Amino acid sequence: MSEAIERLLERLQTGWTPSASEIDRDIVQVDALTWEWSHDGRSILSRSADQRPQIHGGILYVSERLDFALTTDAFLWLERQRQSTVIEYNIPDDLLGYDTSQPGYIRQMARDALTGRNEAAVEAELERVRARLMLPRHHPTRRQRLRRWLSHRYWRARFWIKDLIK
Question: In the chain, where are the structural domains located?
């Protein structure tokens, strides 16, 4: 990895968003057209302007909006139109810990949602979605927070009673 890429990585980690003219001339800039993640998520597969396939590994940084990425050998401009059409199937691990290979996980997910389990993780994921879609942040009012708290307590008690009866 060159010194120019190290300097650029440091600037990107501060939250700086570059334009093409602000990037050091020693760093190769690539227009990654119709890009996608590799199956293991460690590299970016793309096509160049002349439709040649390219593989860019050694990912150092990816912007929050998925509009650019920095690898050990190049700076990639990711096609903006592509990010709105990316749909991920076969996600390997559920971040909330559900075993998606078992059919009963849906019932457990619904139960956990009603009782407020994993609420912080769900809110963090929703915040990332809002940021990617450039939607305003959600700030629940005091009344909404109270209603949510009461609802979670109601469902926890209801499931607790149901489990006692079994």
Answer: 3-83, 105-165
